[in-house]
Every structure is written in structure tokens, then in C-alpha cells.
Amino acid sequence: MKVLTKQPWRYRTGDVLDPSALNRMWQYAQSAIDDVGSRRAQRPHLILPFTQSTETPSTQADALERRTIRIPTIGAMVIDRAYLHANLTSDDAVDVFITTDGSTPATGASTPHLTTGAASASVATTIQNFNPERITLGAGTEHRIHIAPRSGNFSAECFDVGLHFSSDRWLRLGGTPPVFLPTLWTDEHEPDATTVATSKSSLETQAAAFATRKLTDTPLFFKRETWSSASDASSLTFQIPRYDSARAEARIVGIYVYALASSAETGTNVSAVLRDESGSTLSTAVATFAASTFASGSTTAAIAMTAATSGISIDPALDYSLRFTTNIVSTAEKAYAWVFFSR
Amino acid sequence: MTVSNGSAIVKADLDALTETALALIAADNARLPLGWPLALEFSGLNASLAAHRRTRTFVAPQDLLLETFAVQTHGLTASSALSFTIRGDGGVAQFPVDVLGTGGATTANQTRTLFDNTKGRVDAASLPTNPVLRVFPRGSTITVVGATSSVAVDPLVIAMLMFRAFFDRG
């Protein structure tokens, strides 16, 4: 509905107001909240490439972490649908699992959640699969997607898992949708300003939610494989374009990075650095390796940037970039970064 | 404005009861949703790469308006040809969006295709240069195919699709 900032009918000083006239005032605001507030679900989508263009094909010989992509969340998100698009050779079906820890299925996930269904003799054959089951990913959690053959070996030249997410602007961090329930008047009511003031206060409280929960999370995913501290920085920098509209507001509210190394890298790290168009650093997420060859780390923009709780404001007229850096001299096998937009 | 028993109410007082709240709701109603980029990686794109290794396929979760198509490249052969074709099914017109560029060794943000509501001709003769199809209906299978004459071994090639999509009703 078109929402006007003033009541769509005219009051004039001197009019005698009947209960219906007063009720229309509240009911119009109630309808506006119901209508605008019900448009609440965002549908971000991603492609998670398990094998990139010239990357060495994934095989069963790879350690589990090398066949795994982690999914972090800030607010609650739902996987609405999952798709598989693959070109591979395999001795048997290759399955996709969505778990909480690498083995425990996520609540709502099938086991497996996606599958190629059978052996594949040629990479020229494109295999697709689809699962409409919903999986709820709680706020602040991490889930994992990994691929595995039922038997034998496989070699995947293309293995893309597409995810449709759904996230609710009102329920993102445990909130509730705005509901305005005014006290309506009848002819039997005595005129009472206190009742009017109560409804006014309730209306303003509910309407204020629209200014504080403008958007819910939409993730952006980057992956880079086989690089080191000696790599050309330009090959590790990803542009984050925006389109120029002052009405397209967004903030970056979280950056999550994790990486694998080809050898034990205790004490070394991989970072994802968010920069603005002039090259100034806005935020850095650092994953520090312990004794293993796997490391993960995350930061929220609020922590990294300022005391503000609403993240890094994005100017829609400018471009931003995310760059991987590391002090690993050998090889960082794979590095992954998630950037979350919200408002 | 404070409403109190015994006070006279004028027109401005009645307007003031709701106008602050209505202004917030109206502003939200007029705001565009976030147009987040969908990043599709074509790292390693070169002339000898098989088609299935330079194709990304996904399904539109809701009606999507392709607002901007941006391509970032690094490490391609100098002056090499570069093209992307975006095709979706389920639309009224199913002509692809073709985007052409030139690769080079240094980082290049290819000329962006900014869709500005200019209608493209929908006859076949206008292809492949006119961007025609930019609204993808829910359920449309969208494919993005990259191609280049570059022979560099491991370039960085990222295609960014900036979609505009509105909130769904919950």
C-alpha cells in the first residue's frame, strides 16, 4: 500500500469528531504497519564452488577439510533450497552432507542432502540435483557442507552447491514483528485522553522498529586457492561493487575468514581485509593457525570498526574491496571469506 | 504534543498523533532493498578451458532484476578478448545478455553494464550487443558463461551480478 506521512483524509479544526473518525486514524496506521511489515523475508542466494575453474579436481583422497565449505551466520538464516550442479567422473554416487561438525547432520538436513545419484563416466555430462527441505541455521552458528563418494574415487571438475537462503528482518536476532493494536472507540466510550496517548505511544514504538531493522543478512562468498605471501596482491583482491542509489542502504556487519595450509603453520595467519575505494582499511578478520593446518576467525564490523553496533556504513556510490593476505611462505591451499551485509 | 484530558484538540494535534510513526513507515516503504552482489568466480579462465568449467548455473529464488553486471580481471593475456553471456529461462524474451571486454595482465575493472531502463531491441539481428533480458522470474535457471582468448594459466576473473530484489511477504 502507499503510505502517506499524514492521514489520507482531512481534519479541520472545529470539526466534531465521532468515534469512527478517530478509529480511522488508528486503523490506517495499523494497516500500514501490517502491510509494510509483512514484507519481511530476504532471499539471498549463493554458489559454493567446491572446484574452481583450473583448480585441481577434488578427489576422495583429499582430507575432509579440503572437501568442506563452512557456513557461518550472524543472524538466524534458513536454507530454503539446495541445488547441485556438477561435472565429474566417479566410481559411485557422490553425496553432499550438511552438518554441524563434519558428521552430525544439521537439523532438517537429509543424509545425504544432495547427490549425483550414480557413478559418472564423463565430465561432459552435467549432473543436477535439488532438495527443497528447509534447514534452520541459528544465529551465531557455523555449519559445514562436505562432499564424499559412497565408494571408490571421484574427480570433480565442477561441483557447485547452490543455496537459497531465507532470512527474516524481524526474527534475525530473536526479535518480534511489529504489531500495533490500538484501543478503538465506541459510542459508549467516555472521551479519555489517556487512552489516546497510550495508543500513540504504542504506535511510535512499533513504527520505530522499521528504522532499526531495515534489512536482514545477505552473505557474499569468496574463495581463493593455492597462494602464498609471495602472490601478487592484485590476484587476491576482490572488488565489491555497489549500485548507485541513495535508497539502497547497506552496512557490512560481519567478516568471517578461514583457511587451509599445505603444512603445519603454527602461529601464521590468513587475513581478509576490507578496504574502501581509496584503499583505507575499514576492517580486518584474522584466522590464526594453531598446530593444525586449519584456521578460522571472524570479526564483526562493529567490533573491528567503532563502538557503533550497526556495522560499517556502505556508501552506495563507492566500491569496496576484500583482500586476502597471509604470512604463510609456503602455500595457503584454500582461503574462504564471508562478508555479511545487513542494516 | 501531549494529549491530556480537558485540553482543546485542533487539527494539528490530530495529525501529530500519527505523523511521526507514519513517516518512519513511509520511508521504509519507499526504500530499496539491499542489492547485494552475487560473486561468480571464473578463476583460471582461459581459451582452452572446457565449457563446463567456465559455466555457473543457479536458480532465481525470487523475481530478480539485474541492476549491474561487473567483471574484475587480473592476469589475462594482454588485449585478449573477454565475453560473458547471461541467459535465463522463463522470461518473456529469452535473449541473452552479452557483455564484451578486453583482458590484460593488470587488474582491470571491466566496463560495467549498467542497466538504465533503456529498452533493448528484441529482434535477433540486434544480438549479441544489446542487453535484452534482465528480469529473471522466480524459478528461472540462469547460466553465466565466460569466454576469453587469453592463454594465461591462472588469471583471477570474477563476475558480479548486482540484483535488485524486494522483500518477500513472510
Task: Please sum up the structure shown.
The complex is a heterodimer of chains A (343) and B (170). By secondary structure, chain A is mainly beta.
Strand segment count of chain A: 19
Q: What's the assembly state of these chains?
A: heterodimer
CATH uppermost class of the domain at 217-343 in chain A: Mainly Beta
What is the distance, rounded to the nearest whole angstrom, between the alpha carbons of the first and last residues of chain A? 23 Å
Reported for the largest beta sheet of chain A, the result is: 6 strands, antiparallel
Can you characterise this structure?
The complex is a heterodimer of chains A (343) and B (170). By secondary structure, chain A is mainly beta. Chain A has helices at 19-37, 193-212, 301-304, and strands spanning 39-42, 45-49, 68-72, 77-90, 94-99, 114-115, 127-131, 135-137, 142-149, 154-168, 218-227, 237-240, 251-261, 269-275, 281-288, 294-300, 312-313, 320-326, 332-342. In chain A, helix 1 (19-37) packs parallel to helix 2 (193-212). The relative contact order of chain A is 0.16. Chain B has two domains: 1-31, no CATH class; 37-164, Nucleoplasmin core domain (Jelly Rolls). Chain B contains one helix and eleven strands; from the N terminus they run H-E-E-E-E-E-E-E-E-E-E-E. Chain B has one helix spanning 11-30; strands at residues 37-41, 55-59, 64-74, 80-88, 97-103, 108-109, 113-114, 135-136, 141-148, 156-164, 168-169. In chain B, strands 1, 3, 6, 7, 8 and 10 form a six-stranded antiparallel beta sheet that branches. In chain B, strands 2-9-4-5 form a four-stranded antiparallel beta sheet, with no helix packed on it. At the A-B interface, helix 1, strand 1, strand 2, strand 4 and strand 10 of A face helix 1, strand 1, strand 2, strand 3 and strand 10 of B.
